Amino acid sequence: NESRTISVAIPHYNSSRMAHVSLFNILNDPRISEIIFLDDGSEPEEFNKLKTKLKPFSQKLKLFRRDFNWGPFASKIQAVELCTSDWVILLDNDNTLLPEYLEAIFNLPEWEKSIIYCPGCACPYFDFRESLGEKDIDLDTTSAMINSGVFNRQFFNDGNYFLHRDS
């Protein structure tokens, strides 16, 4: 009976071999309205492999491409901007979401625009939540982390985040 829906934004660069992994637990979930793949200037052969691999899923998936590589952070920002839902999961293309991830999101009675949610670690690779003290990361905390001399870029590169598109 859930009426809220979300988009999934997936940046991609030269890794078509793993692209299907991110789709396992989200493709058939009716709470996911769309899946946006943004290719960040992969080699032409690699992009063609990606198109071929994703073609069977085109009913829910939209594929975009940049001609030049802008890097992971710019790619993540643009992938989120391409989404049409107000709420977005930002997912690395070599990760997947466990069912518990979506349940944690949808069990929240209200989603707050000022919070970047991280209900699960980047599965299967790296769980950095312990180093963050298991706390919510709001926009002020994120800004402070970015502007500090000890900012750990893995925070943005190894997480599957749930956030408000415009915030």
- Low-confidence regions: none
Structural class: alpha/beta
Mean pLDDT: 79
End-to-end C-alpha gap? 27 Å
Shape: globular
Into which percent range does the helicity of residues fall?
Answer: 25-40%
Q: Count the E strands.
A: 7
User: With helices defined by DSSP (H or I, 4 residues minimum), what is the helix count?
Assistant: 5
Give the strand line-up of the largest sheet: 3-2-1-4-7
Strand content: 15-25%
Give the SSE string: EEHEHEHEEHHE
Rg is: 15 Å
> Major sheet: size, sense and barrel closure?
5 strands, mixed
Could you explain the architecture of this structure?
The chain is an alpha/beta fold and 167 residues long. The protein has helices at 44-54, 72-81, 99-106, 139-147, 154-157, and strands at 6-12, 32-40, 61-66, 87-90, 115-116, 137-138, 161-164. Strands 3-2-1-4-7 form a five-stranded mixed beta sheet. A two-stranded antiparallel sheet has the order 5-6. Helix 1 (44-54) links the parallel strand 2 (32-40) and strand 3 (61-66). It is globular, with a radius of gyration of 15 Å.
SSE diagram, text form:
Elements: E1 6-12, E2 32-40, H1 44-54, E3 61-66, H2 72-81, E4 87-90, H3 99-106, E5 115-116, E6 137-138, H4 139-147, H5 154-157, E7 161-164
Brief write-up:
The protein is an alpha/beta fold and 167 residues long.
Question: What attributes characterize this protein structure?
Answer:
167 residues; alpha/beta; two-stranded antiparallel ribbon; 5 helices
